[in-house]
Design goal:
The complex is a heterodimer of chains A (80) and B (567). With 80 residues, chain A is an all-alpha fold. Chain A has one domain: ACP-like (Non-ribosomal Peptide Synthetase Peptidyl Carrier Protein, Chain A, Orthogonal Bundle). Chain A is built from three helices and no strands. Chain A has helices spanning 3-16, 40-51, 68-78. In chain A, 31% of the residues are buried. Chain B is 29% helix and 23% strand. Chain B has a nine-stranded mixed β-sheet, with helices on both faces. A five-stranded parallel β-sheet of chain B has the order 4-3-5-6-7, covered by helices on one side. A four-stranded antiparallel β-sheet of chain B has the order 17-18-22-23, with no helix packed on it. In chain B, strand 1 and strand 2 form a beta hairpin. The chains are: A mainly alpha (80), B alpha/beta (567). The interface between A and B is medium-sized, with 27 and 34 residues.
Chain lengths: 80, 567
């Protein structure tokens, strides 16, 4: 467990989970229907604001956003 | 051989009684969509045929035969009746694409109530205005969506029941809430249908306009005549097909062709209740040997974006026929699908109010990529002058799409809004609100909407609704919402916002406003971009000039600015 994983997981729970669904770092977010393709835009914006990065649109794919761990891997590519 | 055969022959010899005869319906007799989609198929000797293959996001699968459809819809109908729900009352379906949604729809219709499907991603405000307008008596939902309903329950004394299909066993529920487990409920084999007739209300779907609140589009049981025949001739549903309609029944395609058109034709259909990913979609087609695929331009463009390499991992050779709906399908997507799937996606044009396909490309017809195709047999459609409301005499001119009323699935009214309904007609034509032209060969070519409604991913979003939500955010003083071009979704929501004193535009505020609208309305309505500006363009009388902002986004001429207020 690292800080980034926790921050992103907690943000997803706060913003996108409506009931008491438990979330792990590998829970499918997009294919699991927790975050839809329209809402991905706000999740991307959060990551960009939080980590002062810019994620190119062609890298913000449903596959790259499909779990907390995958998001962390993507973010780390852009964090200086 | 396709079901339609020769398009020209069908046009010349068309009468809606073709469908009536095939469905053994005689004018004046009872007609109940729930019965036609389940019991009738069983009576045809197909009770053991698979009707629905459902797959969840975890890959879990459930299968239902037509007899299962019959029994379970009887059971739901019986349960609703036992709660005291009366024919004609509105019962909302607020669920993900789970089996209870599809079968519950049929059960509601069997007991004579009106099915009111709503998109499960709607936020509490979007949900409330639609339930309030319909004065909905009951809502069927899942425990994951129940908190949104509970949030507004106190404002809805008319909502007598919240039915939860996956409630935790043994866990007590608050007042007005009740559990119903379709799988475990005692099955009702013999169910007395409510006597519904051609003009009995069946479905209430909500759609958005430029101004005012969303409109409830009222359909009747006779709509099945259109849905059955268009599904047969346009989607070309055949006995051996495995059919996949990717639409959510929270929207009209998901009911007209994801339930009514499919089941009344006795076809096997599959449903994927999972978020989008190219890999997962192709895997699904391969696994279930999908042969007829009805999808949307947004999904098709997302697949294009995912590239061609991923396609090579899967055997998609079962695909026989592809069609698309929701917004105009661009020619590049048609050409791409021909290249990668060996067949083009055929564009179909219709809307919530028409209830069934109006203008379309047919199997066997010469396809002009980017064109909407030609009117369905029995549909008189043309393009009229926006000033005179008369059809153009010569081809190529851009005007309003106009359809002669009278087809079976035409909406009967807007719920509690007859004036707006009447305003949809001019000079004897129904006006869907879109512009197009017709070429020399009679093909229609879509140009755009005739109003400010935003078509994002095939769903209509009212700028008025988003602007109203924005004004409830503590930082927002004024707002104007327009469409912004987008490769995947055709259009997305863009908001121009002025801030109240003490607030400054920032990235964090931008995100806060986005999330505020998303939760209040829906992810579709969330502005994908927010621009903070000092002043909105207004007329001298103070009306916000949305068209100036729209023109700026689309790189168009701003036009007449003589009424623009001077700063």
């Amino acid at each position: 467990m690292d800080e980034m994983q926790e921050i992103i997981k907690n943000y997803v729970i706060k913003e996108y989970v409506e009931d008491d669904t438990e979330l792990t770092y590998d829970t499918p977010l997009i294919s699991g229907g927790i975050v839809d393709s329209f809402s991905m835009v706000s999740l991307k914006r959060f990551l960009e604001n939080k980590y002062s990065i810019s994620i190119p649109d062609d890298r913000a794919t449903p596959e790259a956003f499909d779990s907390v761990n995958k998001i962390c891997a993507l973010v780390r590519e852009f964090v200086k | 051989m396709s079901n339609i055969g020769s398009y020209d022959e069908r046009v010349n010899n068309f009468n809606w009684d073709i469908a009536e005869k095939e469905l053994d319906f005689k004018p004046g007799n009872m007609i109940n969509i729930g019965w036609y989609c389940s019991d009738r198929i069983c009576r045809m000797g197909k009770s053991g045929k698979t009707a629905l293959i459902w797959e969840g996001s975890a890959g879990n699968e459930k299968r239902y035969t037509y007899d299962d459809l019959r029994l379970n819809s009887n059971t739901i109908g019986h349960f609703l009746r036992s709660l005291g729900i009366m024919p004609g009352e509105r019962v909302c379906l607020f669920m993900d694409k789970i089996p209870e949604l599809y079968i519950g729809f049929l059960g509601i219709l069997k007991m004579g109530a009106i099915a009111q499907p709503l998109f499960s991603a709607f936020g509490d405000e979007s949900l409330f205005v639609r339930l309030d307008n319909a004065q909905t008596t009951a809502i069927i939902t899942q425990k994951k969506h129940a908190p949104k309903v509970r949030k507004i329950m106190d404002k809805m004394p008319y909502l007598k029941h919240m039915i939860i299909v996956d409630a935790d066993p043994g866990k007590p529920l608050p007042e007005r809430e009740v559990a119903f487990d379709m799988e475990r409920a005692e099955k009702i084999d013999r169910f007395e249908l409510h006597p519904t007739y051609a003009e009995t209300a069946s479905v209430l779907h909500y759609t958005s306009g430029t101004t005012g609140q969303p409109k409830g589009v009222k359909h009747v049981h006779y709509s099945l005549i259109s849905q059955y025949l268009t599904a047969k001739w346009v989607l070309d549903l055949q006995e051996s097909d495995i059919y996949w309609c990717t639409a959510d029944p929270g929207w009209v395609t998901g009911t007209s062709y994801g339930i009514m058109g499919a089941f009344s034709n006795g076809v096997t259909q599959c449903v994927l209740d999972a978020g989008f990913s190219a890999d997962n979609w192709y895997r699904f087609i391969e696994k279930h040997k999908v042969s007829m695929w009805y999808s949307a331009p947004t999904a098709i463009r997302s697949l294009m974006k995912a590239g061609d390499e991923v396609i090579k991992k899967y055997d998609l050779s079962t695909l026989r026929h592809l069609a698309s709906v929701g917004e105009p399908l661009n020619s590049e997507a048609v050409i791409w699908s021909e290249k990668v799937f060996g067949k083009p996606f055929l564009d179909t044009y219709w809307q919530t109010e028409t209830g069934s396909i109006m203008i379309t490309n047919f199997p066997g017809m010469k396809i002009k990529p980017g064109s909407m195709g030609k009117p369905f047999p029995g549909i008189t459609a043309t393009v009229i002058d926006a000033e005179t409301f008369e059809p153009f005499a010569e081809p190529g001119k851009i005007g309003l799409i106009a359809i002669r009323p009278g087809w079976p699935s035409m909406m009967r009214t807007y719920w509690n809004n007859e004036t707006t309904y009447q305003n949809k007609f001019r000079n004897g034509w129904y006006l869907p609100g879109d512009r197009s032209s017709i070429d020399k060969e009679g093909y229609f070519w879509f140009v755009g909407r005739d109003d400010d409604v935003i078509n994002t991913g095939g769903h209509l979003v009212s700028p008025f609704e988003v602007e109203s939500a924005l004004l409830e955010h503590p930082a927002v003083a004024e707002s104007a919402v327009v469409a912004k071009p987008d490769f995947v979704n055709m259009e997305v929501v863009k908001a121009f916002v002025t801030l109240k004193p003490g607030f400054t535009g920032s990235k964090d505020l931008d995100l806060d406003i986005m999330n505020f609208v998303r939760k209040k309305l829906s992810p579709l309505a969330m502005p994908q971009e927010i621009e903070f500006i000092d002043n909105l363009p207004k007329t001298r009388s103070g009306k916000i000039m949305r068209r100036i902002l729209h023109a700026k986004e689309w790189g168009e001429e701003i036009g007449d600015t003589s009424t623009l207020e001077n700063d």
